[in-house]
Every structure is written in C-alpha cells, then in structure tokens.
Amino acid sequence: MYVGWTRIGGGTISVDSSEPITCAEWLDLARAADARGDFLAAIDNADQGLEAYPDEIELHYIAALAAARADATGEARRRLVKFRERALRAIAEDRIVRGLGEKVEALAARILKDEAYLSGADDRARKLRLAAEEYERVFRKYGSLYTCVNAASLFSLAGVPKKAEALVESAFSLGAKLLESNTGLTDNYYFNASMAEASLVSGETDKTKQYLLAASRASDAEVASRATTVRQFRRLLKNMPVDANEVLKDVANRTVIHFCGHMIGDGGSRFPAALADDVRERIDTLLERFDVGHGVGSLACGADILFAEALIDRGADLTIVLPFEREKFIETSVERGGAKWVERFRACLKAAGDRVHYATESGYLGDDQLFRYGAQLAMGLAVLTAERLETDVRQILVWDEQRLGAIGGTEESYDHWLRFNRPSELIDLPSVKNAKPGTIDGEVPEVARHARAMLFGDIKGFSKLQDSQLPLFVKKIMGTVATVLSEEVGEKDLTFSNTWGDGIFLVFEDTVVAAKLALKLQKTLAELDVVGLPDGLELRLGAHVGPTFELEDPVLGKGNFYGAHITRAARLEPVARGGTVYTTEAFAAAIALESGDEIWCEYIGNLAGAKDFGALPVYVLCE
C-alpha cells in the first residue's frame, strides 16, 4: 500500500514467504485475472510469477496478451520483444506445447493489427495487410480456425477481397470438419465467435448474429473474450450498412456504471431514511434495465451502500473508491447513519475484495476537497474499466436536484460527468425544506487542498556533462523547454513552474493541458539535434494529479506547492524511460474521463518508485 491513489494489492495476492507459490499457481492466478477482464491484475500476477520463474514462457505470454487486451499496444510489443526469440527457439525444439507455440506466434500478428489501427489512415491498409500475412502464415503452419478467420478479416479490411474470400471459404470448410469430429464445439466460445466473424466477412449478417448468440451462451464465454470480439467486430462493422450495436448486443460485456448519491438520515437529511426501500427498488430496476455488470463509486451510508449491495446481489463486480483512510471515512460518512450502516459498509468493503482504492492516504483534516478528488477518480476509473471491457459506461445517481454547493457532493459529480457528454440516469428524491449539504461538523481546514496536475522531469545523461557543455545545455535544451511552455501554455493554464539544474516542476489546473504539454515537450526535444552535446540526452517525465497545498514559500518569497502527492509525482519521474511520460493511475483515470480519444494512457505494470517509495501502478501517456 502506498500514499496516494492506492489499489490494494493491485488485484494480485500476498504470498507467505515460508510457503513459496508454484509456477502453476502463478499461471492459474494470471489466467483467472485475464479471463475475468482484470487485465492489469493479470499483468501484475504474471510479473510476480516471473520474479521467481523468469524463464516461464507462458507467464511472459499472458502478460503480453493482457497488455494487448488492455489496449496497451506499446507495452504489449515491448513485452513480446523480451521473450519472443526465446519462445521461437523453444517452439522449433518442441520444448513447449503446440498450443502455446501457436498462441505466441499469433500474438505477434495481433500486435501488428493493433499497431495498424494506431497509425494514420494513409499507412493503415499497408500495416493491416502485414498483419493479415502474419496471421495467414501462422494458419498455414498450425491450421487453426481462429488464425484463418483473423487473416480473412484483415485482408478484407486491407482491401484485398480475393484473399479474404479464399480464407473465408477455408474457414467455413475447417469449421464444418471440426464440428463433425467434435459436436461439443457448439458450446465453445471461440469456435462460435470465429464462425461469426467468417460469416460477417462473407456478408451473412443473420448467420453472424446466430453464431454470436451461441458464443454468448457458451460455458466458456469470458469477459476478456467478449471484449476482444467486440473490438474486432466494431472495426469490421465500421463501413458496413448495419447497426453495430444490434449485431453485437448478445456478446457485448455488461455495462459499467459510476454511482453516487446522498447520505441517509432523519431530521433535514436530503435522503430521509423512510425512502431507503423505495430507492433500493429503483436502483435494482435501473441495474436490470442497463444490464449493469460493474459499478464504481464510494461507500457512504445511504445511496452509495444501497448501490453496492444491489451490485453484489446481482453478481456484478464492485470497485470502491474511498477519499481517505477507512476509519476516518467511517467516522465522517458512515456512522451518521447508525451502527447498522457501519456493518453494511464493512460487508460491502469485504465483498469488493482487492477492488478497494484510496484516493489518498493523507488525513481528512476537515478538507472536503478530498471528497471531490475521490469522486472524480471514481468517475475516471469507471471510464477506464469500460474502455478495457469494450462496453458502455454511464452514471446513475440518487439526487434531490437541489443545488446547495456541497464540495464533492452529488450535484458536483453529476455536473462533472455531464461536462464530457456521458449518459447519466437520475433517481430523484423529493426536495427537503431547509436541507443542508452533508458537511462534517467540527472540522474546518486551516488551508484547503486543491487537486492539481503536476509534471516532474529531468534530463537523462545530464550528470555526465562537462562544465564546458553546461552553457550550451542551458541555452539549447532548457531554452527549448521554455519556448514550448511559452508557445503551448497560457498563464492561466500553468499555475506554477520551477527548475533546478536539469530538473523541471510544473503545476496545472487542467490535467489534459498538462498531458498535451508533456507530449509536446517530448516530441520537440526528441527532434532536437544540438552539435556539441552528447547523444542520448532524453527527457524523463512523471505525471500525477492529486490534492496539494498552495502556500507562501518563506525562502523564495512567493507561492509554492506542497503535499504527499507532490512527492508521489517526484518519485515516479526517476523510473521513467527517457523520451516517455510515465503517469500514475490517478492521472490515467483523469485522462480517460476528460480527453476523449485524442490521448490515452497504457498500463505498463506495478513499478517501484524512486528512493524506496514502494510499488505503484504505472501507465505511459500516448497519442
């Protein structure tokens, strides 16, 4: 556990060192996490297994596959490169099972396909054809249905219809032979999904729907498999005169929601206790209506706990985000409902398991800004989850529609969600006369914290420069940084800046502005060629968003920023690869919520921060 945006265990497990876990057990844990769509936990479990069994090819494969399934294409490529040659040698020498060998070779084709979709339109067809050719090569070598169908689809997308038609015919013929020898394949997800894809490429939409329905009913229809199918089919359906949602309705993963609402109570509460049963019924109705399979929110008494219990009762996944440490949260936001609500809180927290996050482990200090920060992180995490699962995301809230100005309250969450044109569903409450915001009595912060985006950077290789090179470094390298800042960021956007040697510290009010500036800095410096300075000088950047104190610096005589979250950003930057922007999960969540498709963050794993800071989930910023 670490200070800041904390995922307990990261979806992984703790192991008693006196009883070391076996390689087979690590494989089971990684496979199970991948199957349920928890791709980040799959990567983390595989990485922990690799610490003890670094030569286990299947652990490498699962981690790379999970990265690809999480849309972390760059990370998937990096991981594949690390073990591919070793795997190919093992395949050639028959030292790994045939099925795993085929999967490793097909993964390379999959990553080529994903990279094609990240490229510009002018180059996409060429790259899709390369991916198609790689899938076809694997199909000719192993003869499996799914590589045949993938090759057909990609040739179709690349504008090579004759190759696509020939491979579709091969797929239908192969599918018929497989079914003839094994009638149990009618209950196999990938058999039905592959036949559906072949039918779609051949233009048989009705057959496609029938096979997808069969796939959705298969006993091995896993969350991860559904997400992969939906992603691929949306690409194929993009230029077809059919409704993609209609075609995919049976196989799509269930909806993800962000939930929130008022705390419960009597005597002026915005959520009177007498309405609890009615609200729960309305929550159940909406969860059923939208086929909700995953919910993300906090756990205050009242609406939050009612949502959590309803999600648990329908077998949905539950992710809890608490704004600060547990016992203080119980005191501020649960005990006011009474002892029974505390019991219900603890039961929900236990049911959430390793999906419990703390927005910050800093103290509450009477600062309601932490509720705002926690709510926005929960919203971002809901969007991240939906993106990984290739499904819809919406907000459902319990609100009386009164605007009383509570910091981090339900109305703020509603407004913030709608800023990004995301769907929201209201369970309305009757207005209570003279209702008061759900503030906490007796605690008033001396200085309030405010969430700010921050960048820490330094130049890899700076310490090796000679004194004679420093004036040129300051003029060309740091001068370029200054130029980019002045051209790309206005005075209102950049809240604070400071440098020391090669160090850079920048603070922003807007996370997306910070992200775009970080990417622009990396691109500009990568293109810079300075005669007189050594090769290999690269900017390392760490990005985070979190609550900070803005205080007068008595030494500098001007404003400066302080707090545990500043330290968090500072500890991330030294472990970043040169030329990249590493981000915390909080930053990634904000980007998912606020940026659209323009920029995004790819998960790369749990990494140890500098100066024994501890492990933290790390992403890399992409465009």
Explained architecture:
This protein has 623 residues and is an alpha/beta fold. Among the domains are: 255-428, Rossmann fold (3-Layer(aba) Sandwich); 450-622, Nucleotide cyclase, GGDEF domain (Alpha-Beta Plaits), CATH 3.30.70. Helices cover 50% and strands 16% of the residues. It is built from 22 helices and 15 strands. Strands 8, 9, 10, 11, 12, 13, 14 and 15 form an 8-stranded mixed sheet that branches. Strand 9 and strand 10 form a beta hairpin. Helix 7 (145-157) runs parallel beside helix 9, helix 17 (369-389) packs across helix 18 and helix 19 (470-488) packs across helix 20. The chain is globular, with a radius of gyration of 26 Å. Mean pLDDT is 90; it is low at 1-17.
CATH class of the domain at 255-428: Alpha Beta
On the 0 to 100 scale, the average pLDDT is: 90
Please state the second-level CATH architecture of the domain at 255-428: 3-Layer(aba) Sandwich
Shape: globular
Q: What's the tally of helices?
A: 22
Biggest β-sheet strands, sense, barrel: 8 strands, mixed
CATH fold naming of the domain at 255-428: Rossmann fold
Q: Structural class of the secondary elements?
A: alpha/beta
Radius of gyration: 26 Å
Estimated helix fraction: 40-55%
Number of strands: 15
Taken as a percent bin, the fraction of beta residues is 15-25%
Low-confidence stretches: 1-17
Distance between the termini: 30 Å
